[in-house]
Structure formats: structure tokens, C-alpha cells
Specification:
The chain is α/β, with parallel strands linked by helices. The chain has helices at 15-28, 36-42, 47-57, 64-78, 91-100, 113-122, 146-154, 167-176, 207-216, and strands spanning 2-5, 12-13, 86-87, 104-108, 131-133, 160-164, 180-183, 199-201. Helices cover 44% and strands 13% of the residues. The radius of gyration is 17 Å and the shape is globular. 41% of the residues are buried.
Length: 217
């Protein structure tokens, strides 16, 4: 069984670092600041969209040159920004149990690949995942199903479960035809009942049992 994970809002709570980086970049340009709650709402469609939403939140009109400059500054700082990021409780134990149970693990995230690999290394988790795909690894990003399908193909194909926290992840799984396990404590804005999913959980202790159920289905 292949288990593919989203990253931000699923395995890690990285909004505090994204918030800090956003405000550092905005301050550098004299453009004000955003709140932690606002930054949380910007997450999901990759760094370019995050920066676009950040600009809108401080009242900056669409400007391609400014967006490019802010995005470059954001990405440079974000590559090593993980001091404020935390794993969700019991993630490490769940991954270890999944491996023991014979599952093969992968990551499919809209986070750029360099900070993705950096934060996985920071938590000593990079070697747990056979495949890691970032938001800039392909031409497509979630919710396009191609990144998820690409990861599963890279893993050799076969039965799979996608684990994520957001509207983007739910749509990705639905479009890819992959059963979805929704982590309900992430960055989701939509009520659980309004998102397509097969399972919902708020404690990683139960995830291995969800995967076992999927394997036996």
C-alpha cells in the first residue's frame, strides 16, 4: 500500500514560519504586515499564490514585477525557515508504524521542493519517504491530479491512499480517483462534510488503522 502525504497542515504546522517570512519580506518593501490568521488562509496553492494573496492583504494592486521580486525574496528566506515549524502530535509514531506494517510512504505538496526537503531533513524524516514531489517539481500543481498520479507512478503504482488537510487535497484526490483521508486539524476552511473524503481523523494514532482498512478493502 502506498501512502502519499501532503505536507503543510498535514504532517507539519508551518504557518508560523510562513507568517514570519511574509512579514520580513513585506517590511523590506515597506508594505505593512499580515496576521497569523491571514497567513494561514494564504496556504494551499503554492508560493506564487501565497505571495499574491499576501500582496492583496496589504492593499497592493496586481503588479507582475513586484510579485516576482517579493516571490524571489520570500523563497530565499523560506528555504531555511523551519525554526517555528512543528510536527503535528504523533506523526513520527504513525509513520514508523506504517513502515512496520509494510506501507511505502511519499510526499506530494505544493510547497517548493527546496524548503520541502529542508524541513524534512530538519525533522529527520527525509529518508522515510521514497518519493518527494514539490509544487515546482512539475508544470502542474494540486488540485490538478497529475502530481499525485505522478508520485504513485514513481512508487511503482498499486493501491494508494492520499492523506491531506485541505480543500486542495480533497479535490486532488477526488480528481485522481484516489481514496482520501482528511486530517481535520490542518488548514481547511470548508466544513468536513462538504469535502469529498473516505475517512476523517484528528489524531495520527488512528492513521495506521485507516491504511489497514484501505488495504483490506
Amino acid at each position: 500500500m502506498i501512502v502519499v502525504f501532503d505536507l503543510d497542515g498535514t504532517l507539519i504546522d508551518s504557518v508560523p514560519d510562513m507568517h514570519a517570512v511574509a512579514n520580513a519580506v513585506l517590511a523590506q518593501e515597506g508594505l505593512g504586515h499580515v496576521t497569523l490568521a491571514q497567513a494561514r488562509g494564504f496556504v494551499g496553492h503554492g508560493a506564487p499564490t501565497f505571495v499574491r494573496r499576501m500582496m492583496a492583504a496589504v492593499g497592493v494592486a496586481e503588479d507582475a514585477q513586484l510579485h516576482a521580486r517579493l516571490l524571489a525574496a520570500f523563497l530565499k528566506r523560506y528555504e531555511t525557515a523551519h525554526d517555528l515549524t512543528a510536527l503535528y502530535p504523533r506523526v513520527e509514531a504513525a509513520l514508523a508504524r506504517l513502515e512496520t506494517d509494510g506501507a511505502r510512504l511519499a510526499v506530494c505538496t505544493n510547497k517548493p521542493i527546496v524548503p520541502t526537503r529542508a524541513v524534512l531533513r530538519h525533522f529527520g524524516m527525509e529518508t522515510r519517504f521514497d518519493t518527494v514531489l514539490g509544487g515546482d517539481s512539475l508544470a502542474q500543481r494540486k488540485p490538478d491530479p497529475e502530481p499525485l498520479l505522478h508520485v504513485i507512478a514513481q512508487m511503482g503504482g498499486g493501491p494508494a491512499v492520499f492523506v491531506g488537510d485541505s480543500e486542495v487535497d480533497a479535490e486532488t484526490a477526488d480528481r485522481a480517483g484516489i481514496p482520501f483521508a482528511l486530517f481535520s486539524l490542518g488548514y481547511r476552511k470548508t466544513p468536513v462534510e462538504d469535502l469529498p473524503h473516505r475517512w476523517v481523523f484528528d489524531d495520527f494514532d488512528v492513521l495506521p488503522d485507516i491504511v489497514k482498512e484501505a488495504r483490506e478493502a
